[in-house]
Amino acid sequence: MTLPTPPQPLTFPALTFAKLAPRPFLTAHLTSPSGPLRPSGRLPSQPRAPTCNAGSLTHANGSAVVRCGDTAAVCGVRAEILKVDDVAGYEGREVEDGGDEDGDEDGEEDEEERRSEEREPKRRRNDRDDLARLMLLVPNIELATGCSPAHLPGGPPSVLAQTLTQRVMRLLLTGDMIGLEPLRIWFRPTEGAAGATGDERIGGDGGEMEARRAGDEDGIAKAEVKAFWVLYIDVLFISLDGNAFDAAWFAILAALRDTLLPRAWWDADREMVLCSDEVAEAGRLVVRDVLVPLSFGVFEGEGMGVGEEGREEGKGRWVLVDMDGFEEGLCREEGTVVVGEGGRVVRIEKSGGLGVGVGEMTGLVELAVKRREEWMRVLGML
Amino acid sequence: MTDRRRINGPPSGTSPPVFASSLSSKVFPAKRKRAPDELRKIFLKTGLTPSASGSAYLELEPSTPTAAHKSLATKAPALKLTCTVHGPRPLPRSAPFSPQLSLSTRIKFAPFAARQRKGYVPDAGERDLAAHLETALRGVLIGERWPKSGVDVVVTVLEGGEDALWNRGQSSDGGRTGGWGMMSILSGCITVASAAIIDAGIDCIDVVTGGVAAIVRQPTAPPQVFIDPCPADQEEIYATCVVGYLQTRDEITELWTKGNVTLSIDLGFEHLLDQAVEAAVAARLVLIEAIKESTEIKVQTSRIGHPKNAAS
């Protein structure tokens, strides 16, 4: 709007109006006779279409660039090695039988009688505890990239950045997306000799896995976890126009699905972990579930007063899904619904008001399920 | 000095993976396939961050396409930079009076930008680069037109040139070749920041672009001057020179040379400088093209009245 326009003294461009009186501006849009429509042209329940480009960064094990409207984020997942010897007070869990030393009431004998599928939830819980205790997932969200005028570098991370990081961390851990098994680096005595020479061990991966599995069940070969992969998950915002959480999460999800972990083994002679640089031998990280958040805000219209026809205008309450920066500035009540496979509700966060009841929340969960389909299509899973 | 505001990972620290192939003495030879005076392909686009006054993205392709690689250790990195410009805007009331536009530049590497994971706290190298960038840009801005105002230029390095490959990173060679990658990054930073400043509509006396040239050892022939050296090419470099150059005024706003420059004619400082200027002139063509493109889009959207968000 920089071109010289003929002077029109009594009208303003929409942009000026939005800046001068944002609340009536948004109310006017939502109460327009043609139905509620947001300034961006979206329906209140219509999220922005995401785009995703995975695997574009060279130095990251997995990466993704995600754009939702004017919000764009880059996520890089970087895997580094944590030796168990370096962990203070590390006590190895018996991985094979799923028993734990944390003092559960189940004895060893009961444990053996159980079926493996019965043990599965417990193993998952143990894995989740270990992930959290060893701090194997390290997400950080950086907003201070000049992604919006409110976020300039040169200070500690903003409150928003810290909150986002913590929320992402919690969802990563409670959502049970990543198992511990792909992050374990094993020492297998039988293959130690072969591992040391490094170059000759090509194409033996399948057999080796078999060998380990067999060894595990018999308990003969003393396979031992010597190290873990630590995933540093860094999200940088290139551009921020509202709904940072959804964009950050989507970037993380896409980057994790893109993550390639090199085949790694413990070299007993060198007492260090070595990796194979063959792309063919590297393993894709398994992401168990696609958790999809849907953030929303509740806008309460006010301030329009009595309209020309005598009816009261601007009263109402709208649930706006996937808000942009302008709308975020006007909504006090905000929240997020996270759904997983089959419409499983993983997490609900909401704060700031009483506008959303059970009925609205049910509707939002349905929207989130739809949003999940959209994301999966973008990720190429549907 | 643990940073309690971020998540730091295991307290005992972690180590980057070591590839078994890097322990053997296999060294990949230098492989520059470009001609000595040929630049890498430049991709430049403005307007990536709508909420900033100006923004730009620059990418320099790796010399060898990554898809061809079968090894995780020898993937060739590209150079990827984003830049946002905020302002000019009034300085805070507490700031002392400044008759000119006060420029502040920041360069930050993403944690995944280089082979070594970088922390979030700015290190000396980043501050050094930012100071060089500030020098390069200060010479083009017409600062008198904005008294009592400030402008922030923020460059984020998403992927940076790397000094050595994995294979060499462990060897004794690593230390000697250190630091050359920074020179290419600075050259890219100058170009991308220039594009973002123009996108922000800040008055400049000319368009500044960055160029870099290096004296490179040849295995069989005498050393030669290459423009736009790429760290992934595994060249052995004697000296590098970066310039920020204004073509129409034939002026240099920033000059940074490092290494051993001999006094001979075809390898001397003058020649190296000329070649760096050459590179800057070539980058200028791309920059002008990108600006034209984005200006056309801007004009079009303002004509049809683009329903832009009011978020500021």
Automatic annotation (TrEMBL), chain A:
Keywords: Cytoplasm, Exosome, Nucleus, RNA-binding, rRNA processing. Residues 48-83, 126-262 form the Exoribonuclease phosphorolytic domain. It is found in: Cytoplasm; Nucleus, Nucleolus. One of its GO terms (biological process) is U5 snRNA 3'-end processing. It holds the Pfam family RNase_PH. Residues 97-112 have a biased composition (Acidic residues). Residues 113-126 have a biased composition (Basic and acidic residues). Its main location: cytoplasm. One of its GO terms (molecular function) is mRNA 3'-UTR AU-rich region binding. It comes from the Eukaryota. GO terms for cellular component: cytoplasmic exosome (RNase complex); nuclear exosome (RNase complex); nucleolus. Residues 29-54, 90-126 are annotated as: Disordered. Belongs to the RNase PH family. This is Ribosomal RNA-processing protein 43. It comes from Imshaugia aleurites.
Automatic annotation (TrEMBL), chain B:
One of its GO terms (molecular function) is RNA binding. It is found in: Cytoplasm; Nucleus. Residues 38-202 form the Exoribonuclease phosphorolytic domain. GO terms for biological process: nuclear mRNA surveillance; poly(A)-dependent snoRNA 3'-end processing; rRNA catabolic process; rRNA processing; U4 snRNA 3'-end processing. InterPro entries: ExoRNase_PH_dom1 (IPR001247), ExoRNase_PH_dom2_sf (IPR036345), PNPase/RNase_PH_dom_sf (IPR027408), Ribosomal_Su5_D2-typ_SF (IPR020568), RNase_PH (IPR050080). Transmembrane segments: none annotated. GO terms for cellular component: cytoplasmic exosome (RNase complex); nuclear exosome (RNase complex); nucleolus. The keyword Cytoplasm applies. It comes from the Eukaryota. Keywords: Cytoplasm, Exosome, Nucleus, RNA-binding, rRNA processing. Residues 1-21 are annotated as: Disordered. PANTHER family: EXOSOME COMPLEX COMPONENT, EXOSOME COMPLEX COMPONENT MTR3. Belongs to the RNase PH family. This is 3'-5'-exoribonuclease. It comes from Imshaugia aleurites. The lineage of its organism: Eukaryota, Fungi, Dikarya, Ascomycota, Pezizomycotina. The gene is MTR3.
